[in-house]
Amino acid sequence: MKTETRSFYEDAVSRTVSRVASQLDDALDLARLARGAALSPFHFHRVFRGMVGETPLELHRRLRMERAAWRILQGDAGITAVAFDAGYETHEAFTRAFRHFYGVPPSSFRPHASREGKDGALPRSFELAARCGVHFNPPGSAEPNVHFMSGGQPMNVEIKEMPELRVATVRHIGPYPRISEAFGKLGAIAGPAGLYAYPEAAMIAVYYDDPDTTLPEELRSDAGISVPERQALPDGLGEARIRAGRYACMTHRGSYKKLGDAWSRLMGEWLPRSGERVGEGVSFEVYRNHPGNAEEAELKTELFVPLA
User: Fold this and answer.
1) In which domain, by residue range, is 65 found?
2) What is the DSSP letter of 294?
3) What beta strand segments (E) does the chain contain?
């Protein structure tokens, strides 16, 4: 079962990598890629990033930049034409991006500026650092294999049978890192209403949209607190339900800034090896303490993923 599940995820991600690499001139339809992998866009983004080390959009951008660098090394393409083919609207924008990736402007990347022995320079390579081992393939090259991410610190993941959770919420629309604003509003209402007094009360964040397919200003999330059924909700709070069922729970200790990496490891390393598949429902975070009562290194966050 574990081998079959890992093969399912590896095959799905490998197909997506091949599709991205072979369609560099096309705009990415990330929702379509997710459907092809039989995952929701939200979960697909996390699985892909965890297994490959970059999102499909980052992979697409890098391969287009590598192709641009390869064309420049061929010496017969104009910089402006290369810039347009790489998806940049102006020569200046392409030059800034190229310098960021390669350390020099495109004009300095030309063959005459990078021959071995000339001013001590070494031959330039169009390949950028990539942990997955996938690079732009010039015409006639063999298709590379994907090197999936592995290793790192052991992950403490438990399978938990969770009851349905009733959550009092404040909706946040906008970049996910700013959900603290919604938690501030939640505290201003929930505190005076006594919602923190219940033993089962837990601070919860639910994220609904994939940042790779949704504009930052349109991302939806909920800052919430779990409440008992008998509790009436004060004005200003909404209500959400998190379905009962089996969940994978991983405990992250440390800065909230590292939560993205924790999600990537959970979805990209643990999940494919676990024999489990993502189920219906939402993923969510539970905060067992907060910066007001714990040092950053002692922050404890539980990550929950619904399982089939």
Assistant:
1) 2-120
2) S
3) 157-162, 165-173, 203-207, 220-226, 238-242, 245-253, 284-287, 300-306
161 plus 114 within the same structural domain: no
Does 193 fall in a domain?
A: yes
Give the global pTM. Answer: 0.78
- pLDDT over 60 at 122, yes or no: no
Q: How far apart are CA 177 and CA 164, in angstroms?
A: 27
pLDDT in tens, 52-76: 988 898 999 999 999 999 999 887 7
In a domain, 147, yes or no: no
Examine the pLDDT at 126 and tell me if it is beyond 60.
yes
Number of CB atoms found within 10 A of residue 274's CB? 18
Contact 301, 256 (CB under 8 A): yes
Q: How many whole angstroms separate alpha carbon 185 and alpha carbon 204?
A: 14
Residue 281 and residue 209 in one domain = yes
256-267: pLDDT as tens digits: 988 988 888 898
125 domain-assigned:
no
Q: Are residues 291 and 170 in the same domain?
A: yes
- CATH number for the domain that contains residue 73: 1.10.10.60
pLDDT at 120: 41
C-beta separation of 286 from 202 below 8 A: yes
pLDDT at 119: 44
Domain of residue 229, CATH code: 3.20.80.10
Provide the mean pLDDT of the chain. Answer: 87
Residue 123 has pLDDT above 70, yes or no: no
Asked if residue 303 lies in contact with residue 46, where contact means CB atoms within 8 angstroms, the answer is: no
How many domains does the structure of the chain reveal? 2
Query: How far, in Å, CA of 275 to CA of 289, rounded?
Result: 31
103/195 same-domain check: no
The whole-angstrom separation of Cα 163 and Cα 210 is 26
